[in-house]
Design a protein that fits this description.
homodimer, alpha+beta, 10 helices
Chain lengths: 299, 299
């Protein structure tokens, strides 16, 4: 019996009964599957949101939220910015060789230090360090960084409390056992006296975007890599000047430290660097670095 | 009329017709909603997969793929690594101030250059630059980087072909119109003569993980930020030595350049830096940098 003949047959038999049954059944089925259908639409929405905000990190930089109205397509920096001749002092091969060796020897002495002397750092020095970080290249010259330099003892104490609370949870619950094990040789622990001992804490915030004078959102292309390169310039400047630092990435502290320091929604904490002079009893693990042939491939 | 009395009433009227209609209706409804229900299950699965592989970038570093068998929980670096006294030369405040200023003044002269002189760079210089990059700090001292230095003209040509092909697609299809507009002041274009003109190309690869001598996978915690900081050290060394570079992030070139240079599956291209001396006619856009008070917050 095919469906059409069945329908004709049932219509002949009892029209009212069949249509009532159909309606009851349809309503019943819809109620029965309601949750799943709703979940479908909800999850599709969530999936899209998730894909928009996360997925391949690079992809995030592809699109901005602007409507791309051609009228609004003006570059963040004026398009007619003049180009000027760039002729830095020319150095001979011998000079370049000597300087590259000298710089390597200085940088090779750098170590991450976990115990600091309380001696304060002159404000002009801190200014020069941050100015040096600010010379770093960035995607489309967006300079997507904010450096918060904390010397106030009460604020350092508040930062220490937040980091220690989160670190306690990181070590006990959030990090893999292998990770905690891999950190053992460094004597890292959830208690962080250096956050109050070091004379200055530099908190490196990355700006994912900013606002242009015309009110349009300005995307910061490659803001992660740009901000980390700037942190490299900062660490190099600290070493060159004769100070030391601890390179730390406070896990899960972004929201609370951002709130504490009143940083806006477009900024995210990437690094926290205590800076100062090493404590007179400072020690470091006796580690080597990979030999050149392990990190360099010549073609 | 409530549902129960309706059902009783229809049963009295014509049992067979009603049940046939119910079955037809149920099957029909299921077929009608089949796609949505399937999509629901598919999307839930995809959502989970997406959340697992991407989502918060930091999360990726939380877990490794190891089974966390306590027997295998040995740190990548020996746990009993001795700690040694670290006493770098102590510099007075005046010295620190002088050096921080001197370093800032040198770094402030750095510019991204897009036209290079063909003069070769001595191999020892390139070695010193990469050795300096290798002094950079890294998560749990994993040193998650490989620097591929290309001087061979044929390989440079092959790299240029790949980058130009991908860039043509990036500019015409993959990048937002706003992004392409924001790049106009820099005179960037899909044609990249500097990839064959510069005497050396440094390709910075990040290792997401490596293999320990015991065959266990070694996770490279914070490999993105560590590799970018090392690139900062490298750019600083290039500037200090008296050379110039172009900081570029070749979009969508990872797979093809990785294949060309035979890099393993655990490595990902992060940056491509042509290095050399500027062409005698080199120009740069006449840009300023943000003033200190825009990038520094003192607390």
């Amino acid at each position: 019996m095919n469906i059409i003949s069945l329908v004709v047959w049932t219509l002949e038999k009892n029209c009212f009964t069949v249509y009532t049954a159909l309606i009851v059944c349809f309503v019943g089925f819809t109620i029965f599957h309601k949750n799943k259908l709703e979940a479908h639409y909800r999850s599709a929405e969530k999936k899209e949101k998730l894909a928009r905000t996360a997925a391949v990190r690079k992809e995030r930089d592809f699109r901005d939220d602007s409507d791309e109205d051609p009228e609004l397509l003006v570059p963040a920096i004026p398009e007619d910015t003049p180009h000027i001749v760039y002729q830095p002092p020319r150095r001979t091969d011998d000079e370049v060789l000597r300087r590259s060796r000298e710089y390597y020897e200085l940088m090779a002495q750098r170590r991450t230090v976990r115990t600091f002397s309380a001696e304060p750092i002159p404000q002009d020095v801190l200014d020069n360090l941050i100015k040096t970080a600010g010379t770093s290249p960035s995607g489309a010259h967006t300079e997507p960084w904010t450096f918060v330099v904390v010397q106030d003892p009460k604020t350092k104490e508040a930062i220490r409390n937040i980091v220690e609370e989160e670190e306690e949870l990181n070590y006990s619950k959030r990090m893999s056992r292998q990770w905690v094990t891999d950190l053992k040789p460094f004597s890292t622990k959830p208690v962080k006296p250096y956050l109050t001992d070091a004379p200055a804490l530099v908190l490196v915030f990355r700006q994912a975007y900013s606002w242009r004078p015309d009110g349009k959102k300005r995307m910061h292309y490659y803001s992660e890599i740009s901000t980390a390169i700037a942190a490299g310039f900062l660490l190099a400047a600290i070493q060159y000047s004769g100070l030391v630092a601890l390179t730390s990435t406070p896990l899960n502290c972004n929201a609370r430290l951002r709130a504490l320091l009143s940083r806006p929604a477009n900024e995210r904490l990437e690094l926290l660097l205590p800076v100062g002079r090493p404590h007179r009893d400072a020690t470091v693990p006796d580690l080597g670095r990979k030999p050149l042939q392990e990190i360099l491939l010549k073609i």
